[in-house]
Amino acid sequence: MAEIKFGKWLGGGLGWALGGPLGAVLGFALGSAFDAASVTVQKSDGTTYRPRGYSSHAGDFAASLLVLSAAVMKSDGKILKSELEYIKKFLALQFGETQAQQQILMLKEILKQEIPLHEICIQIKQYMPHSERLQIIHYLFGISKADGHVHQTELQTIHTIAGYLGVSDPDFGSLKAMYFRDVNSDYKILEIEKSVTDDEVKKAYRKMAVKFHPDKVASLGEEMQKGAHEKFQKVQEAFENIKKQRGFP
Q1: Strand partners for 48
Q2: Inter-residue contact 220 to 132 (CB < 8 Å)
Q3: Which of 190, 30, 180, 181 is nearest to 108 (CA)?
Q4: H or E segment at 49?
Q5: SS3 162
Q6: pTM score, two decimals?
């Protein structure tokens, strides 16, 4: 079987994403079936290596983003230009324009496939830390709102993905409230009821600040922390809004 220089498509080394259902979807997108034994990963310095074991890499995260992005985009039966532009902009910020163009080409091929969503998510859950799975859900909400409208079928797909990834309903609700505001959004972001005491608000803020701290995704590299900073800022804003409403220091 011919070797595939796969790293150039995803902007980082690959580990566990090379195997299982995720690897099968990616391989089909490149027009070639493969497994870990037949893949050569190309590093940024031009050298290549055959991945061993299941260490996590930025490429694993990027691969997961592409496949789950396709699942969300396909859920309402139409692929919107605004969604593709949102994803391209996101990828360009993370990996640079050249990598983003290659990744978009791969995404378009993935969109032609049937995606075994449950199996894909089980694989991601097995190898990806919880903090990185939260980051993926946050990103998927951005796709859903890319054209400024709420797409219920896409939101349902994101909720399904979150469940498969082991993201709790309170965490899902917190991330959703960062994109879709209502009168209780600040409380939802902190995962508390409006009836809680001021001390409970402070306790919830400290808990969420730890959960969504950018350092939680530091292993993916500095560029991947940008979205995490956005989540962290939303938690801070929610706390400040509640403080202002209640008038406590």
Answers
A1: 42
A2: yes
A3: 30
A4: strand 48-49
A5: helix
A6: 0.82
**Distant-in-sequence, close-in-space partners of 133: CB < 8 Å, separation ≥ 6:** 124, 125, 165, 166, 167
CA-nearest of 122, 170, 99 to 21 is 122
* Amino acid code (one letter) for 237: E
SS3 state at 72: helix
Neighbouring C-beta atoms of residue 186, cutoff 10 Å = 24
Q: Which domains does the chain have, with CATH numbers?
A: 1-167 (1.10.3680), 168-249 (1.10.287.110)
Q: Both tokens of residue 111?
A: 């969109």
The length of the chain is 249
- Tokens at 10, concatenated: 């995803």
Query: Where residue 45 falls among pLDDT bands split at 50, 70, 90?
Result: low
Rounded distance, CA 223 to CA 42, Å? Answer: 20
In tens, the pLDDT along 190-206 reads: 999 999 999 999 999 99
